[in-house]
Design a protein that fits this description.
This protein has about 100 residues and is of the alpha+beta class. It has helices spanning about 10-25, 60-70, 90-100, and strands at about 1-10, 30-40, 45-55, 80-85. Strands 2-3-1-4 form a 4-stranded antiparallel β-sheet.
């Protein structure tokens, strides 16, 4: 299991990407959190309100999730970070497996 992370500029975009990932069974669950980001872009320090998506899925789907986010995202360089989940309850891990699919890979 992995926790993948991306950020969006609007709540509508965050909801659209989250819904697509869950609907297409690329993710079992996506949580959307309001965030304030401070980052360097094109030589300037930016401060932006964003919406962070925490995407729960299988490690085998990481590339498909990354590619789907890239296809749906408005940013030139969408964030994509995937972290391996070292510990999770067995029931929760089984639910992630049951709610995602890998047959089309």
């Amino acid at each position: 299991m992995i926790l993948a992370i991306t950020s969006c500029s609007t709540p509508d975009e965050a909801d659209r990407i989250a819904s697509a990932l869950v609907d297409e069974r690329l993710a079992a669950c996506v949580q959307i959190h309001a965030a304030r980001s401070v980052y360097r872009w094109a030589g300037h320090i930016e401060r932006t309100d964003e919406w962070t998506l925490h995407i729960k899925t299988r490690e085998a789907l990481a590339d498909a999730v990354r590619d789907r986010i890239a296809a749906l995202h408005s940013y030139d360089l969408p964030e994509f970070i995937a972290l391996r989940v070292e510990t999770a309850s067995a029931d929760y891990a089984a639910w992630i497996e049951a709610e995602t699919k890998i047959d089309d890979l």
